[in-house]
Design goal:
Helix content is about 40%, strand content about 20%. It is an alpha+beta fold. The chain has two domains: about 15-185, Jelly Rolls (Sandwich); about 230-295, Arc Repressor Mutant, subunit A (Orthogonal Bundle), CATH 1.10.10.60.
Length: about 300
């Protein structure tokens, strides 16, 4: 990863380093003659393709770029990495939807067969979610292949058919995304329940991700979207909450409480406790409780 362009989390860190490529400059623009001038033959205002470009070979762009339109990327064959808001696996069967202006670059050492589609329309402009979206499914490939062939071998007045194929592909994309999110929600609920029961155990993010069927990077991002905290922050919060209860309602020492909630090092526990509770885990907690309980 080129650290000139990406921060420690793998995100493109500076828009000024990203080169804008207007959609009119991208290869694969369908001829405007495919659409007519009459109201019933014009481009769809709901959703229409601006360019459809396919390339098979290594991907090695060093500089991020972005477009002034939405971009759908599908990998037919090969594997690599898509660097955007974070590093994403770039493998056969994956489809990504990038919003306008999102800097990104693709990398693969070996041949990768990739399709890029620039698209626009009221359906996308109305979306408030401007995050990168991704699904992994073979169900999109036939529709996208058909759309590419329709641009490569254009037939007279085929524009409305291209609009229809794109709308069908996007309808399928968002259906698959909804199913994925439903499954993801169930798995994250199970992960949260597991942490509530096992917060004092020795836990690693990689092990948690594997237990619930996620890659480590995807689990990290999905967990933070759901809770507003990273897995490590969330576990620390659970431990500090339990430690506060033990300190308030028992006479146990700080070092023993630290061990009970999952910290072997009392000094490290004290630093984590102070960060979350705003004060050290000392007798102050019990004193405050005693005062509040006094008649």
């Amino acid at each position: 990863m080129n650290m000139d362009f990406y921060d420690h989390a793998g995100r493109v860190s500076d828009m000024e380093t990203s080169r804008e490529i207007p959609w009119r400059n991208v290869p694969g623009r369908p001829p405007e003659a495919l659409w007519g001038c009459e109201p019933d033959t014009r481009r769809s205002a709901e959703l229409t393709p601006l360019f459809v470009h396919r390339f098979a070979g290594p991907h090695g762009a060093r500089t991020p770029s972005h477009h002034d339109c939405w971009e759908l990327i599908h990998v037919f064959r090969g594997q690599g990495t898509l660097h955007a808001d974070a590093p994403h696996p770039f493998r056969a069967g994956w489809t990504y939807l990038l919003p306008p202006g999102m800097p990104h670059r693709e990398h693969s050492e070996d041949t990768m067969d990739t399709l890029w589609i620039g698209l626009t329309g009221a359906r996308l402009r109305a979306r408030r979610d401007r995050a990168l979206l991704a699904v992994e499914s073979p169900q999109l490939a036939p529709l996208l292949e058909q759309l590419w062939l329709g641009v490569e071998r254009p037939r007279s007045a085929a524009g409305l058919e291209l609009d229809g194929l794109l709308q069908a592909a996007m309808g399928r994309f968002f259906r698959l995304l909804g199913e994925k999110r439903s499954t993801e929600t169930d798995l994250l609920n199970r992960a949260l329940e597991y942490l509530q029961r096992n917060f004092s155990a020795e836990l690693r993010v990689s092990d948690l991700a594997a237990r619930f069927g996620f890659s480590e990077g995807y689990f990290y991002r999905a967990f933070k979207r759901r809770t507003g905290a990273t897995p490590v922050e969330y576990i620390a919060r659970l431990r500090v909450e339990q430690a506060q209860k033990l300190l308030q309602h028992s006479s146990m020492s700080v070092s023993r409480v630290a061990r009970l909630v999952g910290y072997r090092d009392p000094l490290y526990f004290s630093r984590v406790f102070r960060r979350h509770a705003g004060h050290a885990p000392s007798g102050r907690t019990r004193c405050k409780q005693a005062v509040s309980d006094a008649p």
